[in-house]
Amino acid sequence: MHVRHWARLVTAVAVVALGWNLSGAQTPAIGLDGAWARRAPMRGMGGHGGGGNGAVYVTISNAGAEPDTLLSATSDAARTVELHETTNDGGVMRMRPIQKLIVPAGGRVEMKPGGMHIMLLGLTHDLKPGDTVKATVTFDRAGPMTLEASHGPMGRPRLIPPRKIEAPAAAERPPLSLGGRGTLL
Asked: Count of domains in the chain?
């Protein structure tokens, strides 16, 4: 009996010393990548100052065997934070709040402009290029996780694929008038 007690004690010390986890907990299945934020364009307004709205975009990956659900988000950068999606309703883009966002097992969800995003309503301070917006997102399984989103002038630059533009042959081009000073052929 005494030997068994010592064996358990030595095993417990070894587990703690080596950092083993007897609870069976695994590495978090949810990953947050490429977080960025932008202030919503303000039409007809001069400066930015506090107030106004913004959005946070992030790619959420789930390496787990079970789906997980994004339930909410919070941030000190805004008075109210909501999960939103943008939809095309008969050619009109509309935003609406959503209650949750399911991230499939082994899958990912990309929050991006024109789609799902974390909406920052009533910004509490001016967002300037180079600022960082901190937010906490809460998942059903993974629990709360903090992300830091970098802020740019109007968000992350968009990559526009090059288009091939062919100029018409000289014979097909109309002459260009130089306003009474001649014609350019």
From this structure: 1
- For 137-174, write each residue's pLDDT tens digit: 999 999 999 999 998 644 444 433 444 444 445 555 55
Sign of CA dihedral 35, 55, 158, 90: positive
* Tens-digit pLDDT profile for residues 46-68: 444 567 899 999 999 999 999 99
pTM exceeds 0.70 for this model: no
Helix then strand then coil, in percent of the chain rounded to 5, is 10, 45, 45
Residue 132 lies inside a defined structural domain of this protein? yes
Residue that the structure tokens 């130089």 belong to:
178
CATH of the domain at 145: 2.60.40.1890
Tokens for 50, please give them: 């506090």
Range of the domain at 120: 28-151
